[in-house]
Here is the input.
Amino acid sequence: MKQNIKAILAPMSPKERISYIWEYYKFHIMGSIAAIILLISLISSIGDKKEAYLNMTILGKGIDSEGIVQVQEQLTNKLVKDKENEEVFVETLTYDPSSQDEISRAGIQKMTAQITTGSIDLLIVDKELFEEITSLEKSLLALNEIKAIDKSDFESVYSKTSDENFYGIGISDIKLLDSLGLDENKVLCVPSNTKKMKEIKEFFTLISE
Here is the structure.
């Protein structure tokens, strides 16, 4: 029969009790400490995490990480009023149109999932991929329907052949994004199910200045 721990510890000195407990329960103690540290870390990270004012996603390869940080900071500084609690997020997904490797497929799958859930507000993709997306019914927002956008403000706009709306803007027209170092084949567009219309209008007002 297993002896009661109190009965075992009763005749021992304080030092002996500590030694005994450590010897027989050290893995339990270490596990409990690790769990507490992990919990504190999770609570801290949740508390420090800011809300997304806008989510921008870029599909491509070899995108300059320093440029991403720079653009994220610039957009946050220019658009966000409550900087303590909100910021613009810029995410990159690896995608190479000339290669159908596993990484590129994963990038497309993640983009598709995020668009489906309305998690992407601004999307930058290669022109070829942009044309594939626009071929899907109501997949992208017609940018001319956003009051902040005037077609004449941009040199490169992309439309469907089936209507007079335009759905994309050539990245070379957007000077604020120059630090990303993207090639001229990239197009900025907006998924039709974005939940941030007010913020998107502010973004396009900013890049039209």
